[in-house]
Design goal:
mainly alpha
């Protein structure tokens, strides 16, 4: 539970781009897309 609170705190203090990136990552995980298929930048 503490990890979740810490994540939420970090998320709330994150700049918008970071939030967007995290949300996209979450959506990919929820949709079941394997991360290996993504080109690494």
């Amino acid at each position: 539970m503490n990890e979740l609170k810490r994540c939420l705190r970090v998320f709330s203090h994150s700049p918008f781009k970071v939030r967007l990136m995290l949300v996209n990552m979450l959506c990919d995980i929820i949709n079941g897309k394997p991360q290996q298929n993504k080109p690494s930048h």
